[in-house]
Write a sequence for this structure.
């Protein structure tokens, strides 16, 4: 595809449910990032992959959050036992290469998660 | 205190006005500075990128970085209604694929 795609675009979960959010990066992009954007706030970093390796997960807010990218392409962000404070837009971004240059991060449209 | 501070606005100006958007930051390790534009229900898209201190111009947009003051600015000349969006400043410390630290975003409306 032409850009980063994310699915679903909208997700409503009851408190305590598990959710899985999918990101399809731009083909050939090595780096993949997940950010969380609360209402009226800027995106906040969650985790970063270079190919299939998760190199930084320092932004994951708790052990209920888990991300994977098993084949170095599609990534899934999983949230277990969702809480109301998890309600936010989850943005995925990809960039071309892992080292040496400052790379533009291309963002998907996000998944808006609402936890009731 | 957040690493990057940005006035959330909202900011409303008439068409054709010059717009000034600003961010301050506390982490002196930041060397790469970006401005993203985010339309409603969309992901952010990169507008401008600068390295270290200085100015950069691209059409109606000018980005300025003053590392001594830890202050960055984005100027929009001859503003258009299509410029109405949320503008996010973002920063990173090193080259390569790096996590970005964003400001809160300023919501801008250009009135025809």
């Amino acid at each position: 595809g032409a850009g980063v795609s994310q699915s679903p675009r909208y997700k409503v979960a009851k408190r305590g449910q598990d959710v899985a959010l999918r990101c399809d990066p731009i083909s050939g992009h090595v780096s993949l990032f997940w950010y969380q954007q609360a209402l009226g706030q800027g995106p906040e970093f969650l985790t970063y992959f270079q190919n299939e390796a998760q190199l930084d997960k320092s932004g994951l807010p708790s052990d209920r959050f888990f991300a994977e990218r098993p084949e170095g392409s599609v990534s899934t962000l999983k949230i277990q036992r969702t809480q109301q404070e998890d309600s936010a837009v989850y943005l995925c971004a990809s960039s071309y290469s892992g080292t040496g240059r400052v790379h533009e991060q291309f963002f998907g449209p996000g998944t808006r998660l609402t936890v009731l | 205190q957040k690493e990057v501070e940005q006035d959330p606005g909202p900011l409303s100006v008439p068409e054709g006005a010059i717009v000034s958007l600003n961010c301050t930051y506390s982490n002196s390790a930041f060397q790469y500075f970006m401005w993203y534009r985010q339309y409603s229900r969309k992901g952010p898209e990169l507008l401008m990128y600068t390295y270290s201190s200085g100015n950069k111009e691209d059409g109606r947009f000018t980005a300025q970085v003053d590392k001594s003051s830890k202050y960055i600015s984005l100027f929009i000349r001859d503003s258009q209604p299509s410029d109405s969006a949320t503008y996010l400043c973002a920063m990173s410390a090193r080259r390569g694929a790096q996590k970005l630290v964003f400001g809160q975003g300023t919501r801008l409306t250009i009135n025809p």
